[in-house]
Amino acid sequence: MDAAKYLFNYLIFPGFLFTAVVGLLATWVDRKVTARVHWRVGPPWYQPFADTVKLLGKEVIVPAGARATGFLIAPVVGLAAATLASAILWMANLYPSSSFVGDSIVVLYIMTIPAISMIIGASASGNPLGILGAAREMKLLFAYELPLVIIMLTTVVKVGSFSFEEILGYQSANGIMLGSVSGVIAFIVAIFCAQAKCTMIPFDIPEAETELAGGTHIEYSGAPLAVVKLNMGIMFFVMPIFIITMFWGGVSFAGLRILTTILKYVAIITIMILIKNTNPRVRIDQAVRFFWGPMLVLSIIALILAVLGY
Amino acid sequence: MNELLFLILMPAVAGLVPLFIPRKGKIVAGIVALAASVWMLVNAVRIFGAGAKEYSVRLFTIGGELPFDFSLRLYQFNAFILLFIALFGVLVIFYSIGYMRGKDRSSIYYSFILWTLSAAAGAVLANNLLILLMFWEVLTVILFFLVNMGDEGHEIAAGKTFTMLGFTDAGMLLAIVIIWVTCGTLEISSLKIAATGFTGVLTFLLLFIGAIAKAGAMPFHSWIPAMAEPTPVPVIAFLPASLDKLLGIYLLARISLDIFSIRTGSGLSLMMMIVGAGTIIFAVLMALVQHNLKKLLSFHAVSQVGYMVLGVGSGIPVAIVGGLFHMLNNAIYKCGLFLGAGAVEFRTGTTDLEELGGLAKLMPVTFVTMAITAFSISGVPPFNGFVSKWLIYQGMLEGPGYNVIFLVVAVFGSALTLASFVKVLHSVFLGRRQEKFAGVREAGFAMQVPMIFLAILCIVFGVYARLPLEKFIIPSVAGTTGVSVEQMAVSTTSGYWNPVIATVLLFAGLVVGLIIYAFGKTKHVRIDENVWVGGNIMDNEEMRIPGTHFYKTVTDDLHPAWSALFRDGQEGALDIYNIWGRIGFNVVQVLRSLHNGILSTYLSWAIIGLGVLTFVLMFAL
Question: I need a surface site. Which of A157, A281, B471, B589 has the fewest CB within 10 A?
Answer without folding.
Answer: B589
